[in-house]
Amino acid sequence: MAVVSFMLVLAFLILSIASPSNGGITSSYVRKTAASVDLPFDSLTSPPGYNAPEQVHITQGDHVGRGVIVSWVTPLEPGSKFVTYWKVGDDEHKKQAHASTNTYKFANYTSGFIHHATIKNLEYNTKYIYEVGNNNATRRFFFTTPPEVGPDVPYTFGVIGDLGQTYDSKQTLEHYNSNPKGQAVLFVGDLSYADHYPLHDNRRWDSWARLVEKNAAYQPWIWAAGNHEIDFLPENGETVPFKPFKHRYHVPYKASQSTSPLWYSVKRASAHIIVLSSYSAYGKYTPQYNWLETEFTKVNRSETPWLIVLLHSPWYNSDNYHFMEGESMRVMFEPWFVQNKVDIVFSGHVHAYERSERISNIAYKVSNGQCTPVLDPSAPVYITIGDGGNIEGLANNFTDPQPSYSAFREASFGHALLELKNRTHAYYSWHRNQDSERVVGDSLWFYNRHWYPQKESSDAATMA
Ligand SMILES: *[C@@H]1O[C@H](CO)[C@@H](O)[C@H](O)[C@H]1NC(C)=O
Ligand SMILES: *[C@@H]1O[C@H](CO)[C@@H](O)[C@H](O)[C@H]1NC(C)=O
Ligand SMILES: *[C@@H]1O[C@H](CO)[C@@H](O)[C@H](O)[C@H]1NC(C)=O
Ligand SMILES: *[C@@H]1O[C@H](CO)[C@@H](O)[C@H](O)[C@H]1NC(C)=O
Ligand SMILES: *[C@@H]1O[C@H](CO)[C@@H](O)[C@H](O)[C@H]1NC(C)=O
Ligand SMILES: [Fe+2]
């Protein structure tokens, strides 16, 4: 029986590979062609009150979801260095966590006072209220901790990339916010696009954080860094890459034995999430390479069935913008992704939406000429979701014909949701900004590569 089904799968694979037809769907949807311009700086205002805390955002603060890092900025003086928090309905037991406070300069800009407080040992699956500020201006928010890590724990992630701070960015954010399902955000890099301005005007890092606060203060955003986080400006003395990003966005990298906030992992509900840096060294013997090699040995699919990777520059994508920029990292890491049966890789960078088939391209050796991606049931699905809506506009020039590795592609702004149901099934959907939230532009029932490695078929593929 097993042999027969194996033969069938093999036959299917051979047929699929041999098929001369091109790939999946190129959506014919044409979005409105309005230009993406940044929201006026003065429209992204600070909250009222003397030295009021602003730019409040949270992320996971430990390896398993019982910690939260709360970050905020006070513009005029350091102010209170504590975050006060308590369980909903239990305000007789308020606790405090101490914040580290720093400032930084960038060219002719000086930041406000940036605070990061790590709250630890929270109860799982519990709603907490937290407060920052002092008597003159106190601001109150809340978050819900995830359930305890486990194989069948349902959990829903939003997925957003390349957001920026245009009218389109705002629409993406509001669209995601209006969906009650999302519990945490996987952010695949390129945050503020402050580097679009002369001297990378870092006030645009402040305004971006004010824009996203309405979601990021309530849900943890799991951060990956993109090229717009590099902020390298040697002619103005800024020779240390990632300076504004690293000061403003702290992540729990030490909890996964990483030596850099640019690559790390977290476990959340039924997912093991690995964050990589496309713009840090990843060649053999480098810190990122060594860390990832060890990290894969720590993944336990009995505990976290879903293995998800975030990295900014896509390995598979068929847009003419940024084509093959992710290639050198693919060459280094793709064999590990296939061996370890990564379920999904989320990337950004290309300002369009695209989903791949499960494909790999690991047979190639310099001398053997085998350099064509092939269907591979052990390989991840690659999703490019750099369509948050930033100032650079859409990447709407796809290669033609659509390559066989591409299952669905569309140049529209939007976001996605990944609903982990149990150890075998996850429902994934992509939502373009022009539709109401309930409209699904692309979707797939994901089957877990470890527990249920069957072939998936998307709505789009069924329609074809
Ligand atoms: C920094 O330099 C820019 C460009 O020369 C200028 O527009 C801006 O006002 C300066 N900012 C400060 C704080 O001096
Ligand atoms: C409250 O605001 C006033 C200025 O309006 C300031 O002098 C005072 O130091 C502030 N108090 C605190 C506790 O920050
Ligand atoms: C993997 O996780 C399961 C479930 O939590 C646990 O029983 C098992 O000991 C873990 N295996 C390793 C090697 O840690
Ligand atoms: C699309 O990309 C191709 C390949 O880079 C280029 O030759 C072509 O001019 C581009 N088309 C447009 C409309 O930009
Ligand atoms: C896992 O979730 C899928 C989708 O909701 C469902 O069809 C399936 O029965 C679930 N599996 C188990 C073992 O509950
Ligand atoms: Fe990018």
TrEMBL record:
One of its GO terms (molecular function) is metal ion binding. It comes from the Eukaryota. The keyword Cell cycle does not apply. Pfam families: Metallophos, Metallophos_C, Pur_ac_phosph_N. Keywords: Glycoprotein, Hydrolase, Iron, Metal-binding, Signal, Zinc. Residues 1-23 form the signal peptide. Transmembrane segments: none annotated. Residues 156-353 form the Calcineurin-like phosphoesterase domain. SUPFAM superfamilies: Metallo-dependent phosphatases, Purple acid phosphatase, N-terminal domain. Gene3D superfamilies: 3.60.21.10, Purple acid phosphatase-like, N-terminal. Residues 379-443 form the Purple acid phosphatase C-terminal domain. CDD domains: FN3, MPP_PAPs. It catalyses: a phosphate monoester + H2O = an alcohol + phosphate. Its EC number is 3.1.3.2. Residues 53-145 form the Purple acid phosphatase N-terminal domain. Belongs to the metallophosphoesterase superfamily. Purple acid phosphatase family. This is Purple acid phosphatase. The lineage of its organism: Eukaryota, Viridiplantae, Streptophyta, Embryophyta, Tracheophyta.
